[in-house]
Amino acid sequence: MTNAVSAARMLVSDVVGDNTPWMSALHHRITTPAAIGAGLGENAAVAWWFARGWARALTNPLLPGEEPVDGTGVVGSDGFRPVARSTVNGETCSLSAVCPHLGGVVSWNDQELSWDCPLHGSRFTAAGGVIEGPAKRGLTPRAS
Length: 144
Ligand code: FES
Description:
By secondary structure, the chain is α+β, with helices and mostly antiparallel strands. The chain is built from 3 helices and 7 strands, in the order αααβββββββ.
């Protein structure tokens, strides 16, 4: 929100030739090595969660028909595809565990009974519907 206002003020300043002192400070902002380092660190963390999710899923084969205890969910694989399987109120759902946003592997949230993506925070119902984005569509159903 503040960046939009700042950008608008800078554009107006450029168009009308406003020489407000604080405006020149915004125009000359330099990205510091610390900011670059912080950005690289955040991207490295996302890459780590991505690799961790896929490795955990692919090294945990799920058996066909295996049902988690009511109120729980497990992530595993049915070969080379990550699968998210949960049981809520006696109903077991098997879904693709791959987040449709950018391919992270979701994990089960015991408190909310939801599938959450650790990469950018998308959340899905136990049946795969989108609760909140950035993902625009839900998790794809899979055969149990
Ligand atoms: S990859 Fe899941 S929210 Fe971005």
